[in-house]
Design a protein that fits this description.
Elements: H1 3-9, H2 11-17, E1 22-28, E2 33-37, H3 57-64, E3 68-72, H4 74-77, E4 81-90, E5 93-103, H5 105-187, H6 192-270
Antiparallel strand pairs: 1-2, 1-5, 3-4, 4-5
Helix pairs in contact: 5-6
């Protein structure tokens, strides 16, 4: 049994070795098709004993005696096809060629999917980087705000001494007014004018003491609310920092996904 006959008898088996859907052809050295096996889902519409196309991969293989690899667009057979034509030699004499026509539909789908993944990943990466930047800026702003509120709290604490001083003056003034009232009473008729002044001094002292108490209550409320704000800002700042770290990790993961998509695209070109 000669080489071509042997190959013809095993062409179906040779086709099954290819994991992808393909058609297989064996020709003699003139380009006449000796055997043809169609693909599972496509047919290149050639017949045994017909001649291969003069401008095709098989004809070029027979003309040059070299392997030929050619990708055909959708327009030729209704789907992208990769043709591989290999010359057959017997005792260094070219006696024919064997070729496979493999559909690239799956590879084309894979390539488009990988391109879509890469494009989407790039968009998500840009968005997460923007979110990370915003989170970092938010965290910095909260730190600044925290410092300013702490300054306010410290300023409020600083007023305690002033209020204590004013309260002391009010007490002393009240005592002074009381003493003046006692002396006015002793002076009798001659101390009436002085008694009025003493009364006003005591009234001013009482008003000052009341004002100090009100101011103290207001400042205490400011201090309490500022403390609460500090707690909220600390918590928010911590969350903002965590968000910034998380978005950076997401960005890195998506960059790896983009890299994987690019690798898929390269693999789809090789298959």
């Amino acid at each position: 049994m000669d080489v071509l006959t042997t190959l013809k008898s095993h062409l179906e088996l040779f086709k099954k070795v290819n994991p992808l859907d393909c058609a297989a052809i064996i020709t003699d050295d003139k380009g006449t098709i000796l055997e043809y096996v169609s693909g599972k889902k496509f047919d290149i519409n050639v017949a045994v004993n017909s001649r291969v196309a003069k401008s095709g991969a098989v004809a070029k293989c027979l003309d040059t005696g070299k392997e030929v690899y050619l990708n055909l667009p959708n327009e030729v057979y209704g789907m992208p096809i990769r043709v591989i034509a290999i010359p057959i030699f017997d005792n260094n004499k070219l006696i024919g060629a064997i070729s496979t026509c493999t559909t690239l539909a799956a590879q084309e789908t894979l390539q488009k999917a990988s391109q879509n993944i890469a494009a989407t990943s790039e968009e998500i990466t840009a968005t997460t980087e923007e979110v990370a930047s915003s989170a970092a800026l938010l965290s910095d702003n909260l730190v600044d705000l925290k410092d300013k509120i702490e300054d306010v709290v410290n300023e409020v604490k600083g007023t305690d001494n002033i209020l204590s001083f004013i309260n002391g003056i009010a007490s002393s003034t009240n005592l002074l007014g009381l003493n003046a009232a006692i002396e006015a009473a002793r002076a009798g008729e001659h101390g009436k004018g002085f008694s009025i002044v003493a009364k006003e001094i005591r009234k001013m002292s009482d008003d000052s003491a009341k004002s100090v108490k009100v101011i103290k209550e207001i400042l205490n409320r400011i201090h309490e609310k500022s403390s609460i704000m500090l707690e909220v800002i600390n918590e928010t700042s911590s969350i903002g920092g965590q968000q910034s770290i998380a978005t950076k990790e997401i960005s890195l993961a998506i960059q790896e996904l983009t890299s994987s998509a690019m690798n898929l695209e390269e693999i789809s070109k090789i298959i």
